[in-house]
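Supplementary Methods. Inverse-folding protocol.

Structures were first reduced to a C-alpha cell string of length 920. This string, shown here, constituted the complete conditioning input.
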C-alpha cells in the first residue's frame, strides 16, 4: 500500500503539488500532529495546495490509493477535527483571500484567512461577520464554516449557517459546486444526478417523519453542532442549497470549502457593560430572562470556581476576592447602534437592576478602557486555569447546552459530576443568554486509570445533558472525535441513520476525515490521546491552542511557536523512551535551523498566548546553551569594547557594500554637537543608529540628526553625551543568547543614563523602539545598585518624545497625503501603536497601518543571515502596501526599516524623517 512507503508517497504527491509544498520530513509531520484538542495523530504527509486543480488531484489520489485526507486551517480545533494519520492538507499558508462586497454588507473569504482579520477589513464599514468565537483572532474561516462557529453574542441566528450567502466547495469525486452561480442547482443535478436525488430522498424521509422534523426544529432553536446540520433538510428544498448548508458544520468530512460569501452584521461601537454578582448560580440564572428582554447582547456566566481562578490577576475587581463560596457573576453588555438606543438600553437596565438579587451595587460603564478590563475578567478564565495546571496534564475545554429555563439545574449537575469524578479544579462559565456552558477540566492521560476516569465522566456527561435535560452535547466547538461516540445518544437512531446515509452519499469511500463526527468505535473519545511530556518550565504551561501562530514571522517558512513546543515535547519523549532512536536524531538534526535559527525571538507570541508563554525567551536560552566558553568570553569582551567595535563595524559595512549593494551604508562616525545647557532630555542614540547610515547616503540626514533638530525646532532641545559611543542596551547579545554580555552591557547603560540624566532629573530618549523596550524591561538583569537607579529613571521611546513635542507646540506647517506605518514588535509590546498612529495622523491626511503588519522577521541582524525569514514574514504586508501609492513609509527601528525596504521595494524611513519633513 502506498501509504506505508513514505518515499513512494512523496514521489506521487510531488506529481500533484510542487515538492516544496509536500512536507514529509519527520519534523514537519510531528509539528502538524497536534491541534488544540487532546488528540494526536502523525500524518504520513503534509501538503500545502494552492489551487482547486491541486485539491481535485488530491481527492483523486486519495480514492485511487485508499489514503485518507483531512483538511486543516488554523488547527485551533478543540475536538480533534484537524489531526490525521493520513494526508493532512494544510490551508493556512495559502487561501488567505478576503474581499469586502456591497459596501460591507457581504464579505468573500477563503478558508485560510483569520476571522479577526476579516473583521479588520470590515471595520471601516461598521460591520463584522456574525460568528464571534473567542478564538476569532486565531481561528480561520475554514474552521469557522466547517464547525458552524458561533460565540458570545451571535447566538443561533448569526452563526455561519444562518449568515451564509453563497459557497464554493469541492466534493470527494472532484465536482466543484458554486452556489453563487444562478444555475448551480441545475449543474448539480446534471453533473451528479445520484447525489442530487439522494439528497432529495433524505429530505423526504425527514419531512415525512413528523416527530423527527419537530425534533430537528427544536434542537436548532438552541446552539447545536452535534452531528451534521440536519436542519438543512427542512430549511431548503433545492439539492444545491441543502448540500451547501450541510457543508456548514460538517468538519471537513463532506468536502473542501474553497470560498464563501457571508452576509455581515452590524458592529455596534456603543456599549454599556457591567459585572453583576449574585449569591449563587440559581440567582444568576433567574436573572437571565429579564436581562435578555432588556436587550443585553452578552450574558456571560461565571461560577465561583472560575472567579476564584482569576481573583489575583491585575485589574480584577477587588469584590471578587471576598465573594462567598457559592457566589456567581454575570458579565452583561448592551451593544447599541446610536446614542438614542444607548440611552434607552441604559435606562432600561437601570430600571431592571433593583429587582435583581445582587450581592453588590452594580457597576456599569460606557468607558472603553473599563469595559476592556471587565472583559479581561471573563477572557482571563482559560489562561488562569491553564497556567495553574500540573505539568504534563492536558487542558480540556468542552461546551454543552441546557434549555435556558433549566440552566441553573444543569450547572448544579455539572458541578456534582466534577465532584464525583475528582475534577476539583474544574470551572464553569459560558454564554448564559443561549444556555451554552463551557467547562474546563485538567486531565492527565499518562495512566490507564486516568483514561478510564475520563471515559466514565464523558458517559455520565452524556447521560446528564441528553438523558436528563435533552440538551446538546456540543454547542459550538464541533463534534470532532470526542463526541462522535455520543451522536446517537443525542439524536436517536433515525436521525443518526440519515447522517450515515449522507456520509455514504457524498463520501462513499469514507476517506475524508474519517473518525470525525461519525465513528463506530465507542471508545473513540479516549483513543489517540496525546501525552504532554514535561520539558522546560517556561513551555510546560502550553496548551497547544495555536493562538500564537498568527503572530509568528516564521509561520510560513519553518515552525511556529506551538510547533516548536510540540517538536520539543516529542524529542523529550524520545530521549526518555528511545534515547538512541533514529527518529530522535532526525529531529535534532533539523531542529537547529527550523526552530532556533529562524526564530526572530521577538516575543510577539506571548501577546497572543492565553498563558503568556514567550517562546522567543526559550529560543534565546537554547541558543545560550549551544554557545561554548570561548564564544561566551568573546561576547563578553565585545560588550566591554563596544566603543572599539563601532568604527570597525562601520568599516565592515563600507567594505561589504563593495560586494553587495543591498547592504546599508555606514553611518558617519561623528554625532551632532549638542549642549546639556537648557536640554529637556538626554538623547541616547542606539548602536544601530551610530553604525548604520541613512537610506540614500550622501546628503540625507541620519536619524540622530533628525531627532536632534526636530527637538530643537520644537523648543525642547536634547543633549547627546560625548561618551555615548560604546554604550549599548545589550539587546544584540540577548537575542543571540549571550546572557552575561547582555547583563554587563545593560548595567553599564543604566550607570551611564543615571549619570547623564543628573540622577534621573532628565528623561532619557532612544530613537530605536527595540532598544527602548529592552531598557524599559531591564530591571531583573540589573544589580541592586542599578535597580535603585533604574527606578528613578524616565526612559522614553522616540514615539513618546514625538508625541510630547507635538502636544507642547510643535506644529506641522504642511501635511503629507498618505503615509504607511509599520509598528515594530516592541511598539506593540510597549502599547504604543495608537500613539504612533496619532503622531503620524498629525503629519498626514491618511495613515495606513497594514492589516498584515506584524514582526518583520529582520530581528536585528538575523535578516542579513536569513533573508528568507524576512521575505516570508513580510509577504502579506508587502502585498498590502504595494496595492496603492503613498507619500512615505515610516517605522521606528533602522534594521526593521532595512527589511521592510527590501521586501516592498519602497524606502522606509524613521518616524523622525516624517516629523522633520512636515515641521520645517
Amino acid at each position: 500500500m502506498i501509504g506505508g512507503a513514505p518515499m513512494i508517497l512523496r514521489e506521487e504527491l510531488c506529481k500533484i503539488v510542487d515538492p516544496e509544498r509536500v512536507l514529509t520530513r519527520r519534523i514537519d509531520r510531528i509539528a502538524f500532529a497536534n491541534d488544540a484538542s487532546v488528540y494526536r495523530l502523525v500524518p504520513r504527509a503534509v501538503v500545502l495546495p494552492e489551487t482547486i486543480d491541486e485539491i481535485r488531484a488530491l481527492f483523486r489520489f486519495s480514492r485511487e490509493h485508499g489514503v485518507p485526507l483531512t483538511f486543516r486551517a488554523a488547527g485551533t480545533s478543540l475536538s480533534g477535527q484537524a489531526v490525521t494519520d493520513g494526508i493532512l492538507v494544510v490551508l493556512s499558508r495559502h487561501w488567505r483571500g478576503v474581499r469586502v462586497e456591497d459596501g460591507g454588507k457581504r464579505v468573500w473569504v477563503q478558508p485560510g484567512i483569520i476571522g479577526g482579520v476579516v473583521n479588520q477589513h470590515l471595520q471601516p464599514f461598521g460591520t463584522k461577520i456574525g460568528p464571534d468565537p473567542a478564538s476569532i483572532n486565531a481561528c480561520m474561516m475554514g474552521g469557522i464554516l466547517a464547525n458552524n462557529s458561533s460565540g458570545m453574542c451571535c447566538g443561533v441566528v448569526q452563526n455561519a449557517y444562518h449568515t451564509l450567502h453563497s459557497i464554493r466547495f469541492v466534493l470527494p469525486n472532484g465536482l466543484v459546486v458554486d452556489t453563487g452561480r444562478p444555475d448551480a442547482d441545475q449543474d448539480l443535478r446534471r453533473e451528479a444526478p445520484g447525489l442530487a436525488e439522494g439528497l432529495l430522498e433524505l429530505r423526504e424521509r425527514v419531512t415525512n417523519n413528523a416527530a423527527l422534523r419537530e425534533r430537528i426544529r427544536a434542537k436548532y432553536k438552541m446552539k447545536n453542532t452535534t452531528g451534521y446540520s440536519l436542519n438543512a433538510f427542512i430549511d431548503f428544498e433545492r439539492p444545491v442549497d441543502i448540500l451547501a448548508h450541510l457543508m456548514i458544520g460538517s468538519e471537513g468530512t463532506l468536502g473542501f470549502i474553497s470560498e464563501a460569501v457571508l452576509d455581515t452584521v452590524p458592529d455596534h461601537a456603543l456599549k454599556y457593560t457591567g459585572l453583576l454578582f449574585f449569591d449563587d448560580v440559581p440567582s444568576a440564572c433567574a436573572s437571565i430572562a429579564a436581562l435578555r428582554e432588556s436587550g443585553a447582547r452578552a450574558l456571560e456566566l461565571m461560577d465561583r470556581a472560575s472567579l476564584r481562578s482569576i481573583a489575583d490577576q491585575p485589574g480584577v475587581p477587588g469584590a471578587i476576592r471576598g465573594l462567598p463560596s457559592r457566589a456567581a457573576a454575570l458579565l452583561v453588555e448592551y451593544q447599541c447602534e446610536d446614542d438614542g438606543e444607548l440611552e434607552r438600553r441604559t435606562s432600561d437596565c437601570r430600571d431592571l437592576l433593583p429587582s435583581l438579587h445582587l450581592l453588590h451595587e452594580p457597576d456599569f460603564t460606557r468607558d472603553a478602557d473599563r469595559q476592556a478590563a471587565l472583559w479581561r475578567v471573563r477572557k482571563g478564565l482559560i489562561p488562569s486555569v491553564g497556567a495553574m495546571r500540573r505539568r504534563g496534564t492536558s487542558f480540556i475545554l468542552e461546551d454543552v447546552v441546557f434549555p435556558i429555563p433549566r440552566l441553573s439545574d444543569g450547572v448544579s449537575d455539572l458541578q456534582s459530576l466534577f465532584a464525583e469524578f475528582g475534577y476539583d479544579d474544574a470551572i464553569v462559565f459560558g454564554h448564559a443568554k443561549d444556555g451554552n456552558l463551557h467547562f474546563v477540566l485538567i486531565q492527565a492521560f499518562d495512566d490507564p486509570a486516568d483514561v478510564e476516569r475520563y471515559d466514565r465522566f464523558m458517559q455520565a456527561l452524556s447521560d446528564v445533558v441528553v438523558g436528563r435535560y435533552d440538551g446538546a452535547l456540543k454547542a459550538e466547538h464541533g463534534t470532532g472525535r470526542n463526541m462522535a461516540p455520543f451522536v446517537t445518544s443525542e439524536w436517536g437512531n433515525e436521525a443518526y441513520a440519515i447522517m450515515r446515509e449522507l456520509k455514504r452519499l457524498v463520501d462513499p469511500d469514507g476517506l475524508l476525515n474519517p473518525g470525525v463526527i461519525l465513528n463506530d468505535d465507542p471508545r473513540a473519545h479516549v483513543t489517540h490521546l496525546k501525552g504532554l511530556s514535561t520539558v522546560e518550565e517556561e513551555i510546560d504551561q502550553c496548551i497547544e491552542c495555536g493562538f500564537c501562530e498568527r503572530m509568528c514571522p516564521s509561520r510560513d517558512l519553518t515552525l511556529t511557536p506551538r510547533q516548536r513546543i510540540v517538536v520539543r515535547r516529542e524529542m523529550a519523549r524520545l530521549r526518555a523512551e528511545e534515547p538512541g532512536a533514529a527518529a530522535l536524531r532526525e529531529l535534532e538534526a533539523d531542529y537547529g535551523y527550523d526552530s532556533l535559527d529562524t526564530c526572530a525571538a521577538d516575543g510577539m507570541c506571548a501577546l497572543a498566548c492565553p498563558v503568556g508563554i514567550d517562546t522567543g525567551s526559550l529560543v534565546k536560552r537554547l541558543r545560550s546553551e549551544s554557545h561554548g566558553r570561548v564564544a561566551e568570553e568573546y561576547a563578553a569582551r565585545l560588550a566591554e569594547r563596544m566603543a572599539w567595535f563601532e568604527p570597525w563595524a562601520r568599516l565592515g559595512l563600507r567594505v561589504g557594500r563593495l560586494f553587495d549593494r543591498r547592504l546599508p551604508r555606514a553611518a558617519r562616525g561623528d554625532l551632532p554637537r549638542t549642549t546639556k545647557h537648557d536640554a529637556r532630555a538626554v538623547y541616547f542614540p542606539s548602536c544601530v543608529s551610530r553604525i548604520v547610515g541613512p537610506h540614500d547616503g550622501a546628503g540625507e540626514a541620519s536619524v540622530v540628526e533628525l531627532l536632534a533638530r526636530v527637538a530643537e525646532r520644537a523648543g525642547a532641545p536634547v543633549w547627546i553625551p560625548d561618551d555615548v559611543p560604546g554604550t549599548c542596551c545589550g539587546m544584540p547579545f540577548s537575542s543571540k543568547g549571550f546572557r552575561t554580555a547582555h547583563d554587563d552591557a545593560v548595567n553599564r547603560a543604566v550607570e551611564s543614563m543615571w549619570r547623564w540624566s543628573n540622577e534621573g532629573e532628565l528623561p532619557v530618549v532612544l530613537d530605536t523602539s527595540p532598544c527602548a523596550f529592552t531598557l524599559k524591561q531591564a530591571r531583573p538583569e540589573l544589580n541592586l545598585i542599578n535597580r535603585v537607579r533604574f527606578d528613578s529613571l524616565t526612559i522614553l521611546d522616540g514615539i513618546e518624545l514625538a508625541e510630547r513635542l507635538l502636544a507642547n507646540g510643535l506644529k506641522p506647517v504642511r501635511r503629507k497625503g498618505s503615509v504607511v506605518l509599520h509598528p515594530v514588535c516592541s511598539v506593540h509590546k510597549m502599547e504604543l501603536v495608537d500613539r504612533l498612529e496619532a503622531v503620524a495622523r498629525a503629519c498626514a491626511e491618511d495613515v495606513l497601518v497594514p492589516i498584515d503588519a506584524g514582526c518583520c522577521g529582520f530581528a536585528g541582524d538575523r535578516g542579513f543571515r536569513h533573508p528568507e525569514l524576512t521575505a516570508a514574514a513580510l509577504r502579506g504586508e508587502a502585498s498590502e502596501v504595494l496595492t496603492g501609492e503613498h507619500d512615505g513609509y515610516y517605522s521606528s527601528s533602522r534594521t526593521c526599516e532595512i527589511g521592510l525596504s527590501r521586501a516592498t521595494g519602497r524606502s522606509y524611513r524613521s518616524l523622525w524623517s516624517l516629523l522633520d519633513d512636515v515641521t520645517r
